[in-house]
Amino acid sequence: MTCPGCGRTASGSEPPARCPTCGFPVGQLRMVLLRLYMVTGAFFLSVLVYAAVVALVRPEGAAQVEGDLVQAAPYVALGVAGALFVGMMRWAQVAEELTPQAAAQQVVIQAAMAEGPAVLGLVAYFLTGRTQDFVIPLAGSLVLFATLATRMPRIGMAIRRYMYRQWEERRGR
């Protein structure tokens, strides 16, 4: 990881807690960023588990409900995915600086939004027993996760700027 204080890149497999040149807490920054990626990965992994459940479990004795509303279930879930996509795009502007807590809140909310269509698709699958009722909303979830993934570097830079400014203010005293 590159130190935002002096631009020095830490060498070795385990970066030090503080930059040896300027003293910036690179270890703390690294842990904050690692937690955000772990939370996002956990939400994404849950969607993959849903896909494995659909692939391995055939809903015997499922309601096999018929009707116009049930037939439209995957498309309703895809519509929800579209609405969530619009909601995530409203967050497209990442603040110049983000506290680690604000960034974590933002990432958790967006990851939960990305997982939503897959959950609705899983419910539709167990109601109807048709795989496409899960696959269509799953595609919506994957698009939402891809959107979040493209935003993660900007969120990381905003945290980095915030932590650097805080460090500068403490160092200036």
Q: Descriptors for this entry?
A:
5 helices; 173 residues; mainly alpha; elongated
Mean pLDDT: 83
Structural class: mainly alpha
Q: Please give the domain count.
A: 1
**Which geometry do the CA atoms define?**
elongated
For the termini, the CA-CA separation is 26 Å
The fraction of residues in strands falls at under 5%
Poorly predicted regions are: none
Strand and helix order: HHHHH
Number of helices: 5
Largest sheet: none
Number of strands: 0
Radius of gyration: 21 Å
Can you walk through the features of this model?
With 173 residues, the protein is an all-alpha fold. It has one domain (26-172). 71% of the residues lie in helices and 0% in strands. The chain is built from five helices and no strands. The protein has helices spanning 26-56, 68-71, 73-90, 100-128, 132-172. Helix 1 runs antiparallel to helix 5 (132-172), helix 3 (73-90) runs parallel beside helix 5 (132-172) and helix 4 packs antiparallel against helix 5 (132-172). The longest helix is centred in the last third of the chain and has 41 residues, at 132-172. The chain is elongated and about 70 Å long. The mean pLDDT is 83.
